[in-house]
Amino acid sequence: MPLTLPNLDDRRWADLVEESRALIPVYGGEWTDHNVHDPGITLVELLAYLAELDLFQINQIPDEHKRQFLGLIGLHPNPTTAARTFLKLTLDKIVPSFDLPAGVAFTTNSSSPVRFQTMEAAELVGGDLVAIQSASGGGYTDLSQQWRKGTPIPILGTNPQVGSAVYFGFSLAVPVAKKLSLYLAFAGKKTNRLERKRIEEEICARSLDCTPPKPWNPCRKRGLEVTRAAPQTVEQQLHHQSVQVAWEFLADQGTDGEWQSLNASGIDFQDETRSLTLDGVVRFRVPAPMRAKALGPVAQKLFYVRCRIVSGMYDEAPVLRDALSNATAVRQFAPETSKLRIAPNAVLPAPAPKAGDRIYPLFEVDTVGRITKLTLQPADSALPEFLVLNYEAPGANEGSLQSESVFLGKASGFPLDHFDLPDSPVLPDNFHLFVQSASGWTEWKRRDDFEASTAADAHFVLSSTNGRLQFGDGKRGLVPDAGSLIFALGNSTRAAQGNVSANSISKLEDSLHNRAILAQSWNEANAALARVTNPLAANGGLAKETLDLASLRAIALVNSPTRAISRSDIENFALGTPGVRLARAIAIPNFHDHFPCFSAPGLVTVVVVPYLPEGKPYPSAPTRNLILSYLNRRRILGTKFRVVGPFYVGVSLQASVKSVQGTNPITVREAIVSRLEQFLDPLLGGEEGTGWPFGKHVYIADLLSVIADVPGADHVLSLSFVAAGCGTSCNEICVPQTGLVFAESLQVEVS
Question: Does domain 561-644 have CATH number 3.30.300.30?
Fold first, then answer.
């Protein structure tokens, strides 16, 4: 739906003609014939037609102006993005391990293959993940069958406590010198890349707020500057606010094996899951040989790695969606490539480049685009790096040089020169444009437009949708010298078409790219990989956002609150705190929970309820502090926040109920107890089933109504209930403003 704009002038041709005809007596009283056959009226109609064209232009806003307007609020259309997923690479049984470099391509097995490329080097080990167990309170629960069926599993139990652990059993030991990559995907809305990005952005913003300004004192002597510790990186701060976990492996020591740490200092270990709350990879090298052992209900002897809660408390129990060993991250894109012809008499370097080489060349090209001279320079980060895919030396006939770069042609020297890339859409990230002129190579910078460019700025604009690349006009953006060689290094993608379903990617691509990356080991790699698959569907591939959609996003951004002003603003901000999972939140203005009988002007008490612990969910102190920090960055002047957990009132009940004749009293009793527990539940209770309302008193009439609605219950013979620590209540239990209730003790007799 496009953005609705006001109509600056709604007059049409007929309106303009009638308005002009009405003005004739005012300015030309002697003109009396106003009929259509009059030549003057014909001129009036012609001028009305021209005026209508001008009025139409008044209501039009050029796309460039729309982009500028969006830029004023810091919003730009989202660029083209490539789909992402993880591959599970299974080695052949006779291959103990295999190393893959970054950039290896895999494809789907379809008539129109979709190509994915690995983002980093992978160390693959033999064996597979075959069992997952959870342990709590000394007992083991085998979750392997549910995991294989694709059922989400609570890997630390439904109510994780300190000491709870999840065990991953592998069929073969991880070699001491190799690194295993274990990808864990979790269920829930706040476990994906978007939530990770929100957490990282909040960490960065909080770090900036806490950074003191640099002191400036002209009287300070040199050498007396205050030195501050280097700030932690985002990765170092990306840890759970409360829970600390320990990753351990069963080492081949002692008579029964010994659990040793994997994430101790000095060990190559990386955990991207933020204590099992975000999708991510756990990478580790075992520092000692592993021991195979049978644990719990799994009779098979396996090599176990476990993750154990050391301290802290979760807001919500982690629920595992899938686990992949030998996991490798891939993105859907393909490098832009081109083949340059080499003239038979060309001057070439010795030794000649070969497939797989990364070269830093200088070219001389004739009028038909053939290489007449090729010079290879030493490696330099300021020079373009070309990956050679194929090289054919010239002889009597032309030779060729094929590389992962695109020779777009020679610059004309005219303003607004443009070139088209062979494949589109194009990924704007990691796109580089190099121009070789008489002075050598120059890298040009990509910009969204030329509005801020000067005549000396080497800028260009790239349309990622159609792959068109444009230079400036000499006033806004430099014009390349005539005859300069234009080279582009970048990647094309299939955008939304790259969002392939699960188990679609199935083979190692047989291409010049892979043979260049893998050199002589392509056949070896193809033989080593027994199975390639993506258990999880690819996602994130999107075409470039249109201006209409960006305009709608701008409206939502402008209308969304940026400051905690109203009660709903405060509650929504608390519920949306990055890295925190809350079930409920309520803001109480001018209230302090320690002094409920007095007004506290300017103080807002925010009561938050997570999902854990079961029965009486209560936020940990680090969780409350994190929410408070998030709210404080959005509070208005004169306001102070206090974040607390709920005050719980336990309800104990004694009831005697008469059942309907012919029903089973035991079944009726169980149904009554279950319904009362649900009705008094902090998260699922109340009349609407959305949680017991804060501060709502418990009335005997409500409990009688609940029991009466249970199938099989005829009538209540007697009912009494009390609050924990109080005497018998008459007909109600008072609950404070920040309070919730829970079922302390339910004694029900059914006759």
Answer: yes
